[in-house]
Amino acid sequence: MPTKALLAPVPAQQTVLIVEDEFAVANDLRLILERAGYRTSGPAYSVAEALEISQQHRPDLVLLDIHLQGPETGIDFARYLNTEQIPFVFVSANTNTSVLDEVKDTQPYGFLVKPFREKDVLVALEIAYYRHANRVEVRLREEQNLQLKLLSTLTEVGEWEQCLQKVARSFEPFIPFDYLVIGLETDEILNTFRSCSFFRIGTDEYQMIRPENFLQMTGLTLEKYQRIRRQVPYNGLAAYNGTDFELFCQQNPLLQLIANTFRLQSHLMMPLKTAQNGGFFIAFYSRQPQPYQPQHVSLLQQLQPALTVTVDRLLAFDKIEQLSEQLRQENLYLAEEVKTGANYEEIIGASPTLLHVFKSIGQVAPTDYSVLVMGETGTGKELIARAVHNRSGRKGKALIKVNCAALPPNLIESELFGHEKGSFTGAFEKRIGKFELAHGGTIFLDEIGELPLELQPKLLRVLQEKEIERIGGRGPIPCNVRIIAATNRRLQEEVEAGRFRADLYYRLNVFPIQLPPLRDRREDLPLLTAHFLQKIAKNLGKQLTGISETSLQQMQAYHWPGNIRELEHLLERAAIMATTPTVSLAEPLLAPPPAETTPILVAKPREQAERENVLAALRATNYRIRGENGAAVLLNVKPTTLEAQMVRLGIKREGSL
Ligand SMILES: Nc1ncnc2c1ncn2[C@@H]1O[C@H](COP(=O)(O)OP(=O)(O)OP(=O)(O)O)[C@@H](O)[C@H]1O
């Protein structure tokens, strides 16, 4: 019968594989097809043969009998054809219901009942060809849409987590999953990990699981997670179904834990090798044992190049943003440093007590031990901190200074540990705390004795766990910082009085350096005087050669409650008044009674004594804080410290309490 004329011409080079165990039927089919212009391969009498033939030469279409030689049926081969996306039409005399149900599950492109007519065969093949071409085109369009959607989602300005959620949703129609992990594994700048996962809790409903929730659910510590994460091999894009997945889990504790926690049986992994630090990945998991097929792998393969470029760009922007935020904070900090004029390190003196201090600095500096610098106010504790930092391996990184007494109590936590945008009223922008700023370097916690009790456990945590948590943050951030603390209080007594945590004290006091008061190293007075006069002369543009003998004698006899800072201020005043190159003191030096002169020895309750001292100094200076005749000079503290003290003690400028 000239059926060929009724049908559209056979597309060029179409090869049909005949899988049929009856020789006569197979031959019949071959003749029909060849007459109609098809090329044929086979016949294959068993699934094993069919597999071999189709792997040698991929057919465009397959005519498939159900019952074949050997243990496997045409339905088994149909599943393989589906994974390979090769269209097929069943040719069978078997139409019983249970077989037909199985047939339907394989989603064939047609079904021919034996015996068949030539025309039926050709029409079925043509329809199959058309449907397949159409399906391929639709799929290609969908895949292109998916690619566009993913790229635009990833480049949208917005919250990172929402962006990840949208990416996960976009994959839903294409790749089955019950659990999906997506994101960036590590981030060198903040040493945090920015991934999250989505766990199916309904047909179309997912629960977002952030890293910290993941740790809670799996009972892992951050450290353990990081350790077992490193054991997961980088295998590139790969699917693990059923037993493959079980084997993979046996070798990887992290995978095993994920599988047990969420009861998963298969896994499809797409890592993106980005040029930036840290890898971006999308990991699909399913509760089904065999869901991940070659078409899923090939879809991800197609998406990989474009996604890699996009993620790379995204990470580069992200890094720039983080670096500029860090730079901005560092600039602010440095500007503040320049203002306070603390940007130098010249420790003058040759007395045995000071030489002993130098020796201690030399011993401890190269280590990473915490250092506790103790000494009365104005003895040069900050200079010691700088010296330790500058002689350590952290020299190239920042030395960040925090004056614990000058921080407003309500902002101290945010200053130290940072906060996320919107984490409290007034937190309009994200802020990197001083600890993060000091990452890789040193933090100098001046006046540590003033750190409020409630914040002390947080500091202890940094020392113990080497991690911090921003206010409103999503979890701990590893933080590699060396701590140098300083105090003019006797911390041991503060511990006994319950004002300072003992555990924190012992952690800080690993290597104590005790700075001698100036009165115990009077032999350094000439050297220090010469040094300061030289500096002051330069500032004032005056020629100053030295100090008069009587003034030096007075200085030698003086008690120096304000130590070197007091000496510096005294010489400044004398230098301003000086009319000759040899400077004489502008005021007599009277040794004040010890109780008033040594703030750390006050017998009254700390706050009361402090308030009385501050008020007395303010009254004496007519509430002037700064400058030569200001209360800060009288109290031998920095003006900023005094201002902060006044806020803390509730002392207003006019003197009201
Ligand atoms: N040995 C020294 N040589 C030169 N200058 C010094 C020396 N020791 C201290 N100074 C100067 O004295 C002033 C006070 O020093 P510093 O601020 O380090 O003291 P401190 O002990 O930290 O005081 P406080 O406890 O009030 O914060 C600074 O201007 C510092 O440069």
TrEMBL record:
Keyword Nucleotide-binding: yes
Superkingdom, taxonomy of origin: Bacteria
All residue ranges annotated as the Response regulatory domain in the record: 15-129
Modified sites of kind 4-aspartylphosphate: 65
Domain Sigma-54 factor interaction as annotated: residue spans: 347-576
Record PROSITE patterns: RESPONSE_REGULATORY, SIGMA54_INTERACT_1, SIGMA54_INTERACT_2, SIGMA54_INTERACT_3, SIGMA54_INTERACT_4
One Pfam family cited in the UniProt record for this chain: AAA_lid_14
SMART domains the UniProt entry points to: AAA (SM00382), REC (SM00448)
Keywords: ATP-binding, DNA-binding, Nucleotide-binding, Phosphoprotein, Transcription, Transcription regulation
PANTHER family xrefs: C4-DICARBOXYLATE TRANSPORT TRANSCRIPTIONAL REGULATORY PROTEIN DCTD, TRANSCRIPTIONAL REGULATORY PROTEIN
Name of the protein in its database record: Sigma 54-interacting transcriptional regulator
Species in which this protein is naturally found: Hymenobacter negativus
